[in-house]
Design brief:
Radius of gyration of chain A: 21 Å
Helix content of chain B: 25-40%
Shape of chain B: globular
Shape of chain A: globular
Strand content of chain B: 15-25%
Largest interface: A-B, 59 and 40 residues
Radius of gyration of chain B: 19 Å
Strand order of the largest sheet of chain A: 4-3-5-6-11-10
Number of helices of chain A: 16
Largest sheet of chain A: 6 strands, mixed
Structural class of chain A: alpha/beta
Oligomer: heterodimer
Distance between the termini of chain B: 27 Å
Largest sheet of chain B: 7 strands, mixed
Structural class of chain B: alpha+beta
Order of helices and strands of chain A: HEHEHHEHEHEHEHEHHEHEHEEHHHH
Number of strands of chain B: 14
Distance between the termini of chain A: 29 Å
Chain lengths: 366, 341
Amino acid sequence: MDRATRQYCDEISKWCARLTREDRCVQIMEVCGTHTMSIARNGLRALLPAGLRLTSGPGCPVCVTDQAYIDCAVQLAGRSPGAPIIATYGDMVRVPGRSGSLAEARAQGARVEIVYSADQAVDVAEANPNDEVVFLAIGFETTAPGAALAVLRARDEKVANFSILTAHKQLLPAMLALLGQDDVRIDGFLCPGHVSVILGWGAYEEIAEQYSRPCVVAGFDPGQILAGTAAIVRQLAEDMPRACSVYPSVSREGNERAKRLLDEVFEAEDAAWRGLGLIPASGLKLRDEFAAFDASGRFDLPAGESGDLPGCRCGDVICGRIGPGDCPLFATKCTFRSPVGPCMVSSEGACAAAYKYGRDRESGDR
Amino acid sequence: MTDTEHIQLAHGGGGQLTAELIADVILPALGGGQQAGRLTDAAVLSADGAGRLAFTTDSYVVQPLEFPGGDIGKLAVCGTINDLAVVGARPAGLSVGLIIEEGLEIETLRRMLESAGRAAAEADVPIVTGDTKVVQRGALDSLMINTAGVGMVLAGADLGFDRIEEGDRIVLSGPLGEHGLAVMGRRKGLTFAGDLKSDCAAIHELAAALVEELGPALHFMRDPTRGGLAAVLAEFSSGAGRDLAIDEAAIPVRPSALAAAEILGLDLLTVANEGKLVAVVSDQAGDEAVAILSRYAIAKRAADIGQFCEQSDDPWPQMLTAVGGRRVIQMPYGEDLPRIC
């Protein structure tokens, strides 16, 4: 263990010991899939004192996406020659739907292109002028500006065969919704580095002040995560919850240009979240002037069914109601090989993290 | 929920799905002589009176055909040489089978073949036979190459899962993930992968030096290609029936590869390599193995990265992380999919 790590760990232990609350227990929720993965990949839980629990929240873009959207995307992919090309981030490809996943659709003839950015999806559309190309626009404020830029580019370059199926989400309404549940204990939030670059750490001040929960933005390496955790525990011990950042890349105001871009292209709409249900004004839909690029207007889309697939408890995992190991399907019926829900598939999912890096060796199946 | 009727890309990814396809479909149909789960990179056959013959084959389907640090021609030669090398054989000759899509530019084909020829000459392994087929446009993507290779197993080589003992050291010949990241970077035009080059290289000299100089202290070898080091460690652990523990801080890594992998959300441990060797040696021989490998330019950063532990009915590979945490190492599933943000 290096010196910095040792220092952070000592600090965390010190402040945990000074907690005045009776149970001396703290549950911190990370609302970022990259944090979830980093915590598991670096084995950080083994370094924390007993009584301090890190739990995963709705931070994985694929995981929070409503089942109806997944089913809709798989349906849209189709298997016939006239079906659109689906351009998507890689994480979406294996997410199970009621009629299979995009990977399975692809094996049966659907055209599914993995892209690394929304901009590349416009490239795909330009390279295939005789085909419709639909980009699966999911994710938080991190990926939404990219989708906005892609739509602007498609408009300016008159790429008429490009459209997006949007399920973009805003993080803050979900955090507020989580605090409104009485069956989930959250003593503080470890806030996401990427989203906060856009939003700014000032965005969490409302939560810190009105709900008395520390909100600390941290980067993704182990040192950052431990530093953020130490700051949260200290605030709890001193009973001075506030919003702040230990991640130097994040300012209080965030990225004004990206926020303006979001506002230019998108407007808020009520959105369905896996596990949290419909949250008012938590989603982003294209403004009317960009309606031509909205796949939901261009194609006759099936009305999907919300809610987890039978037996799947991803919704409870996402909200921190249960841990991955508490789901009866985890590592038995639901594995990398045959995932039942998105949390096992996504490279940022809590179940994938637990399965890949953190599984208890006694839990059997591999 | 899972489609079991159709082949998916992940069936070719070198992970769990590949292993299942081999065990459930391929071996039963072909009456496989080797036990599923204990397959080695090359078959070792006894040639009466002439020692032991190693035999292997591999097909190469990389897109794009050319990538930083290599191309399909060099890859097809080095990959098969390496499969022979890690069973302790000195490669004697290769075949090259070409399957070409109608319309491929002859100049491109020539460039790939010249590269293959150069790689074979540099490795001093002759290409001795071959085959050429052309298929209709659209039936495949430009060019596929199959190579097979034979070699004689070196007299002192005694390698196998059953030779692995408690305390055995695990030695890796150099930094991880460069091939997979270079190809992925070129395929998708990712500029951050700028200085990353595939590690594509023949490792038979390294392997032969270990066999000859370590003798019985060399217990097993693998080349961590598809599925990366994670797949090799998972196979080691289940093949040997032992837990093993890797020290993350000891694993050689190039900062540019680490950064590229982090941006893509990939674990360097699961990314493909094409010029690396993982050797299992006796508990006393770790330093010597590192010294032997370090003599070669492609293994300057060889390192002792961990060891085998006690026998177990449910063996796991585990990692002591660089910050002092602990985690398990899981067999990758299949296709490596870059993440969202």
